[in-house]
Amino acid sequence: MMRLTTIVDLRGRDEAAKSPTLGHDTGSIRIVSTPVEPRTSGRVQQALADGSASAALMRDLMISSYRHYVTEAA
Hints:
Layout: E1 6-9, H1 13-18, E2 30-33, H2 41-50, H3 55-72
Parallel strand pairs: 1-2
């Protein structure tokens, strides 16, 4: 049986504030907050609102977001 000892929380600050990590006593579990702030959520919301959302656009936005994670949020 593996025991969970550490949680690395990569959620952005606003997302983590809306839904804190674990709703109960974590006991001996260490929580490490390392926020990776989303850069594309505004563009995604705009595309959904103005009807320009497409599979290709969403794919491109996700790729851009993941590239940001490894180059700027490391």
